[in-house]
Amino acid sequence: MIIIMLAATMTLAMLIATAFSLHQEAQRVRIQDRQRQIARHPF
After folding, report:
1. What dihedral angle (degrees, nearest 10) is formed by the CA atoms of 31, 28, 16, 14?
2. In this structure, is the dihedral angle defined by the CA atoms of residues 5, 7, 11 and 13, taken in order, positive or negative?
3. For the residues of 1-43, what is the DSSP string, one character each?
4. Cα–Cα separations (whole angstroms), residue 26 to 16, 34, 36, 37
5. pLDDT of residue 42
6. What tens digit of pLDDT does each residue of 1-43 get?
7. Whole-model pTM above 0.85?
């Protein structure tokens, strides 16, 4: 029973870490895209 609970907890932690990582990556891509647009059209 304890092993099942540990496995479930680890799975949930990995899902949360993956969602957080994907969010960070999307934010980084948005910032890079914004910087490219500013560099193309400075005014």
Report:
1. 170
2. positive
3. -HHHHHHHHHHHHHHHHHHHHHHHHHHHHHHHHHHHHHHH---
4. 15, 12, 15, 17
5. 74
6. 999 999 999 999 999 999 999 999 999 999 999 999 999 887 6
7. no
